[in-house]
Amino acid sequence: MRILCVDNGAIVARGRARLVNRPSGQFYAALAERFPGLTLAQGLVEGDDLDTLGNYDLADTPGLRVVSLPWRMGSASERVLNYLRAVPFALRRAHQADFLYLFLPGRLPALFARMARLLGRPYGVYLRGEPAREDRVALSNARFVLAVNEGMRLEAARHCADTALVRPMIDFGPGDVVRDRKARRTPPWRVLFVGRVEERKGVAELIDAMGMLRERGVAFELRLVGGSAEGAELEALRLRASRAGLDPSVFRGVARERSELEECYRWADVLVLPTHFEGFARVLYEAMVFGVPVLATFVGGIPAVLTDDVDAIRLPLRDAGGIADRLQQALEDAGLRERIAAGGTELILETLRSRPWSHLESAERKIRAALASG
Fold first, then answer.
1. Which long-range contacts (CB under 8 A, 24 or more apart) does 140-149 make?
2. Same domain? 129 vs 74
3. pTM, whole model, 2 decimals?
């Protein structure tokens, strides 16, 4: 049977390499072992080795065929051209498939859902972010929906009868969880951001907030870890950091290996994610694994999982001054950081232990059942 997966992320092209984040790459490699001839369709962006977090090369994965569509970030006209190119691409690939597995939310997988309905092809959904209107239409016609948290599962259950929770796609298990981590009590404080270094992740506000803390005399070290925004946006962030008095070395690039990412979490006093839009970022789970207290904006799927002042500290959205205030409070109160970290430890342990099926196991079972039912 011909299985087609459509991811809502992007493949980064660097020469012959086709790079995705490591957990996704490992998932597709394992799924291809179970369904030889598996096809993965994704948008393709050009980049260098700073453009993806946890580089995993899909180019020579046994049993996996990768088909990609050039995807341009930026202006409205470029987004329109993306869509015009995507329609025949999605129609052709959906026509060739017996079953589609779609990662939502996302414009490309939502378009594939539309084509699947048009062609009468069955599909399932992996929901890892807050669904938009077009995603809800896709959910209503799915054979099944696998969700990354209970809030998203409940939303999916409004549209689809067959829903289930799966464990988050992170490289860590219950045995990796750091318990009773003691908070550091002397500066300089260590502030960590992990994710795409771009404005929609709130990096501009974070830079401004750190500049405010510097002016207040708060001693700190900052690491911005992850793939970079493109061209002018990255240069604007670098200029912003310079004006805030931050050293250029705060832009750390990608943690290419798991050991590098682990070192970042073990180094950090706090993880800060002031993102504008989010499903539920895996970096929040990863921080909890290592006993790092989380400060985040409660957008998208985040408030369905985290509770302010219990297992996270809520940050105001697009408010550098408010971010600076909450961050300074956390940095200067070791007891608060230990309490939030303990809440995060409890949450990640419950999450990992209470869900018997991994994403891979659940996807395989659900896809086989859907194929068997015709």
1. 141/113, 141/116, 141/117, 142/102, 142/113, 143/366, 143/370, 143/373, 144/366, 144/369, 144/370, 146/359, 146/362, 146/363, 146/366, 148/279, 148/280, 148/301, 149/280, 149/301, 149/304, 149/305
2. yes
3. 0.84
